[in-house]
């Protein structure tokens, strides 16, 4: 196996925040589920990453009950790691790199919530660690920050990652690309 799908922070914590009403794609589970299906069909590793802030009393505190996948997300299958991170990227506070190395993974397909934060940061760190990174832009979402619309944030993220840290693609383009290996 040389490729893995990393599903980052697609969790109820975000839906429990007031900002969720302004998220660019409240139906993010749909494109994520499609990527999960594509990855499983291709025999790729699927890794689930959830953000946790234990002891904070916030929606990211596991004791509050929101640190779990969005209800509509296809659940992990046996053997698919579910990691809990406490940093913005999926590497620093988890054993993700060790798991990927042991599985022989060299390419990471990333998706998730907070396009410009945890998904972008994981993409940058993964690139620095030598992984070929594939950023599936329409399988990420975020909410506006200050005067920046969610769409402007997503566009900015694509611009700064493109050809430097990652290949930018869409779910449909990735599906077409993987179709020959999936049959």
3D architecture notes:
The structure is a single chain. By secondary structure, this protein is α/β, with parallel strands linked by helices. It has one domain: Isochorismatase-like (Rossmann fold, 3-Layer(aba) Sandwich). The chain is 35% helix and 20% strand. The protein has helices at residues 12-15, 29-42, 96-103, 115-128, 150-161, 171-182, and strands spanning 3-8, 45-51, 82-85, 107-113, 132-141, 167-169. The chain has a 6-stranded parallel beta sheet with strand order 3-2-1-4-5-6, with helices on both faces. Helix 2 packs parallel to helix 6 and helix 4 packs parallel to helix 5. The two termini are 16 Å apart. 38% of the residues are buried.
Short recap of the structure:
The chain is 35% helix and 20% strand. With 183 residues, it is an alpha/beta fold. The protein has a 6-stranded parallel beta sheet, with helices on both faces.
Q: What is the count of structural domains?
A: 1
The number of E-state strands comes to: 6
Strand arrangement within the widest β-sheet reads: 3-2-1-4-5-6
The CATH homologous superfamily is called Isochorismatase-like
Output the helix-strand order: EHHEEHEHEHEH
The CATH level-2 architecture is identified as: 3-Layer(aba) Sandwich
* Low-confidence parts: none
Gross morphology is globular
Largest sheet: 6 strands, parallel
Rg from C-alpha positions? Answer: 15 Å
Task: Write down the overall mean pLDDT.
Answer: 96
| Strand content range | 15-25%
The CATH topology comes to: Rossmann fold
Helical segment tally?
Answer: 6
